[in-house]
Amino acid sequence: MINKYKEEDIKDIIKLGSLVNKKFEKLFNINNLPDNEEILVYKENNKVIGFLHYLDNIDYIEFLNVAVHEEKRNKKIASLLVDYFLSQNNKRIILEVRESNLPAIKLYKKFNFVIINIREKYYGNENAIIMERSSE
After folding, report:
1. What are φ and ψ of residue 88, in 5° steps?
2. Which residues pair with 123 in a beta bridge?
3. What ranges make up the beta strands (E) of 19-102?
4. pTM (2 decimals)?
5. How many domains in the chain?
6. Domain carrying residue 11
């Protein structure tokens, strides 16, 4: 089931986010999100299995994090989160993804995101791919 996160979900979100990015807790103050940030969570047995963290700017939305527990990947959870989000929002969306994260790039292309830019060596020796999905 997908819902907006609640205070009780914060520990699970931080734990999962830290598995994806070791600096997650420092980079994103999940305990005190600004008013224009939100997190959608996918839960099984009251445990966060995946989440979509986004920033709602005035004229566009930025996906900050999409994460799914490793043992639950390839079960369409990320697709469900993105699809749910898109069904609720109609703004232009941008995101950044490591060029080596081919499953994520494939996921975003499935939802009509296109590559609009590349940030050379953004992650040290790895490029960042900037993708966009225009409002419909």
Report:
1. -105, -10
2. 126
3. 37-44, 47-56, 60-68, 92-98
4. 0.92
5. 1
6. 2-133
